[in-house]
Amino acid sequence: MDRKPFTSIHDIARLEARPYHEVVPVGTTFDILRRAADLYAERPAITFLETGEPGGPSRTVRYDELLARTTQAANLFRKLGVGPDDAVAILGPNMPETHYALWGAEVAGRACPINNLLGEAHIAELVRAAGAKAVVALGPNPELEVWSRARSLRTKLDLPVLAIQVAEETDSPSFQKLLDGEPDSLQFDPQLAPDRIAAYFHTGGTTGAPKLALHTHANEVHTSWFAPCYYDFDESTVEINGFPLFHVAGAFVYGLACFSVGARQVIPTITGMRNAAFVRNYWRFCEQYRVTALACVPTVLATLLGVPRGDADASSVKLALTGGSPLPTELAQRFEEVTGLPVRNILGMTESAGLLSIGPTRAPRVPGSTGMRLPYSEVKAVRWTGTEPDFSSPCGPGETGVIVARGPHVGPGYSDARRNAGVFTPDGWLVSGDLGHVDAQGNIFVTGRAKDVIIRGAHNIDPGMIEEAFLADPAVSMCAAVGEPDAHAGELPVVFVMLKPGVSATPESLLASAAPRISERPATPKRVTIVDAIPMTAIGKVYKPALRTRAAEVKLAEMLAGIEGATFQVDGEDQGGAPAMRIRVTATGERSRIETAVRDRLALVALRYELVWE
């Protein structure tokens, strides 16, 4: 089936005039792999780099081999007792064996890929919540420590744990050796169907109770089938994919999407883009493999701006794709000016198999836009009441509201249906939680998170506006704006700034530079803090809960200063939302008086806190 590149919303609308089954001739992720093996059998599907040095050892997997190993994995999992409603937990980096486990699990039952950086207890809770019958994990390895946490599952949950052996033998069965013993044709009827649950993908941060988003095969097929129409990908495409497979970007947005057109993925070692040697040699790898497309997040784009090309011939590269967090217009312009490569933005969610919109490569980049909706889907902005979207009040073109979406890519909800409230509606809408708007041409713009809105009195402040103003300063590498608690206004805007290497600036000079670019006076930050690093998630998103916690620590310490007879140490605990504060009190005066003074000063601050007397 020929998939023509999109250039406008009209191309998408014309496609939608045809029946869905004619446009998408596959129904499951296994169908995509079988089709790719038929069409591109001997073409390379994956090239896995074992080191970050050009010319170092690597492994290449052809499309017929990818299908065969996936089939062997499915047979193995079914032999281990994994049925259609059971899961396989997967703790491994983006590497060939993790692909076999992921796609094989979706044939035998359900896949549950898990962030291997999570703590042991959290991993166990996710495995238990998914009802996993087996675990596949990276074996002992000096570069990435996963095995100790995976092995504990064997005794805690009484599960078979199979080791992806890379560096040394283990006391668990070898996943690769077990695959070798399985036939490369299915030995059972998988009973696959588009509406069968294919996977659990965890979301919601790294703390709190497990939150598993359900994907059907149809959800994952929809995003993977249509993404190449925006990227202009085909079998000649060579993409660097440094995303982990526990994230929808690694698995679908840049993973299965490539498989659907016979493209080649270059995977940069088991540590991905955290491999310093690979990053240092990035452009040389582009030359070696004639890379045509870069899969990034905005922080990776910023990093690559500081990586010299030297004499590397990277002329094969045609495009940089980015998503995961808002793309600052200044960063996009700077990257395009320095590298000569067009940048296209993506908006996605775990709950929609990774995609809501993409900026088409063959259309001009629209500054600030995350692109256009997927075919056969709806995306619109509706007014935000402060706590929830008002579906009876849709926004007009260009009017800011909360982005909501509906379509074949939107999953059926969470494994714990009680979590669906506020995210999934009974009539199929997915509430993104993103603030933004849709213009008259169908371009979608995201300006911030609804939950990240800084509410100063009755004034809602979009943090993206503040961040854009600071990022326009040539001294600024990264920044993030959050709300600081305030007794009178509820919140006041503050900003954390990371400077470029070798550049000096003061909070005062940064504020003086940025303030004229902030159109709303209430949005002018009341505090600018220069930091060595901005806290990030595993895939490079700014992690604002940690910054809100830090802002609260500073503000509370400031509010408590001057209380006689006591000194205070304020520590916040990041709980993924509003921080919980612990105030340690060293008292030399009367305790009851000090406690009364503390409670009087903090009475109007909307924070939970605990006094600890020392």
Give a verbal description of the structure.
This protein is α/β, with parallel strands linked by helices and 614 residues long. It is built from 18 helices and 28 strands. The strands form 6 sheets. A 14-stranded mixed β-sheet has the order 2-1-10-9-11-12-13-14-15-20-19-18-16-17, sandwiched between helices. A 4-stranded parallel β-sheet has the order 4-3-5-6, sandwiched between helices. A hairpin with an 8-residue loop joins strand 1 (44-49) and strand 2. Helix 4 crosses helix 5 (96-108), helix 9 (217-231) crosses helix 10 (248-259) and helix 15 (463-471) crosses helix 16. The protein is globular. The protein starts with 8 loop residues before the first helix and ends with a strand.
Strand order of the largest sheet: 2-1-10-9-11-12-13-14-15-20-19-18-16-17
* Number of helical segments with 4 or more residues: 18
By CATH, the topology of the largest domain is: Rossmann fold
| Biggest sheet descriptor | 14 strands, mixed
- Taking Cα atoms only, what radius of gyration do you get, to the nearest Å? 25 Å
Q: CATH superfamily name of the largest domain?
A: ANL, N-terminal domain
Mean pLDDT equals 91
- The proportion of residues forming helix, as a percent range, comes to 25-40%
Q: How much of the polypeptide forms β-strand, as a percent range?
A: 25-35%
Number of separate structural domains: 3
- Distance between the ends: 71 Å
Unreliable spans = none
Give the helix/strand class.
Answer: alpha/beta
CATH class of the largest domain: Alpha Beta
